[in-house]
Amino acid sequence: MKRPPGRGGPLSTLVGIVLLALMLFPVYWMVNASLQPAGNTLRGGWFPLHPDLSGYATALRDQGRNLVTSLVVALGSALLSLALAAPAAHALARFRLRGTKVVLLGILTTQAVPSIVVADALYGAYNDLGLLNSHLGLVLADSTAGVPFAIVVLHSFMRSIPEEVIEAARMDGAGRLRVFRCVVLPLSRNALITAGVFTFLLAWSDFLFALTLTTTDTVRPITLGVYQYLGAHTNHWNAVMATAVMASVPAAVLLVVAQRHVTGSVAGAADK
Amino acid sequence: MRSRPPQAADPSPVRRGDRWTRWLFVAPAATYLLLFFGYPIADNVVMSFQQYTVTSFYTGDAPFAGLRNYAAVLSSSAFPRTLLTTAVFTAGSVLGQFALGLAFALFFRRRFPLGGVLRSLLLLPWLLPLVASGTTWKWMLDPDTGVVNAVLRGLHLTSSGVPWLTGTSQALLSVVLVNTWVGVPFNTAILYGGLQDIPPNLYEAAKLDGAGPLASFRHITWPLLRPVVSVVLVLGVVYTVKVLDVILVVTGGGPAGATETIATQSYELSFRQFDFGRGAAMSNLLIVLSLVFAVLHLRADRRARTV
């Protein structure tokens, strides 16, 4: 029995592996470069035949603190985004509030706002409030990507929770807050994980807010660390690339850990 | 957009304070969005009419400038080129991402061993921090020692090497290439989702009618995928037109301004020259451009589909 649009055999697997190898070559090259011996020869070999970890040693020494900063900021942003988005998504999905459509449209429109616009305004405001060069400032700014995204993902999931489940709890006398906390949130566990993973990555990958809202190296995310390395350390390519690898680790880890949720929800979110 | 599932009319009796608690759920997010999107947009509009320079930060004094910032930005000798670069960068990236994304989506629709795993791995370029992949590309494209030219030389396609980052037209091609690479996974994921929603029995029927793969693509896949294609293209343009990271990391806008877009110019004006008024005028143009495009495209598409 042949099901359209067709089944492929091992040949398809082979073609797929070749295509993927081509697409992921830059990722390989990044890892390969990070393991080459130090020096200002940009070339290096095709394979890290004699892996040299000195790039990582240099990178950890120079950038270790920035990695911690990124971790703190990304975790903070993921938590803040979920805390703000989850109740709002529940309300938009369930309550018959006036203006729900306008709010959802507004949230989609935020996608068209360049971060540079937000950065422009925040730079001035942060300057007055003393939030430049602070973890809190970056957490708040980075969440501009995370909050709308989390609302969209959680909203489309929470809308699919059967009304009866919530009604049953309401009949038992649970208030709105209790229903949200004890019924909706546990049921939405997978969607919360997905939204959390993505908001973490969005904040972790942020470059523009790091570039514009930090002016000293006291609070410096790893992305900015890579960028400044690029300006100053071009003769230590292995260290630059080791930093790039370390900055990429969360994405790789999360892809493996949350693979199924992630692929499903990318499509789901865009389906809006 | 999915149709809304039928909802009970919230039959529970309205308790005291209930109306209030409902708003309590939305209030934090709404406040945040107003502060971090509403305020910046409004502030940007105001700033674009002010002479807002580095002294303004100390004195708090930013004199009203009327339309002077817009006039300055629009009449600058570099502007036509910046606009053209933005258009080439956006159109090139979006079309490249879409074509490759569609090819991958169609390929992965076939069921084969390891298909799911390979499809997930394909997401990696999209999930990596742009700075990390941009840095890698910059190194790969290095005219003298980069691996791309090494391969081209090895294949005897070029003897002297292509000036990927130092030639003006090659540099623009390079940033388009990198940005395309970044966006393929997103296009694949969404188009793959769209393909999954096409009922398989349509293909069975077409096959019985003797339609080949090309005919079924033209008469089934493409028409049914159209709405998803629209969304992908609109999102693609909206995301691409504001791209900063790729260009800043790979070429820094150079050589000689060959890869300056409206977005990088806006950054340059605000944060390198500290002329926030002109920077704001520039980025407001960007918002208007992307909104106008989104509205026009979606309307044209709706009309095309209802005809």
UniProtKB/TrEMBL annotation, chain A:
Location within or outside the cell: Cell membrane
Looking at the keywords, is Lyase present?
A: no
At the top level, the lineage of the source is: Bacteria
Q: Does the keyword Transmembrane apply?
A: yes
InterPro entries named among the record's database cross-references: BP-dep_ABC_trans_perm, MetI-like, MetI-like_sf
Protein keywords: Cell membrane, Membrane, Transmembrane, Transmembrane helix, Transport
Membrane-topology annotation of the record:
Multi-pass membrane protein
ABC transmembrane type-1 domain boundaries: 67-258
Q: What is its main location?
A: membrane
Tell me which family the UniProt entry assigns to this protein.
Belongs to the binding-protein-dependent transport system permease family.
Please identify the protein, giving its name as recorded: Carbohydrate ABC transporter permease
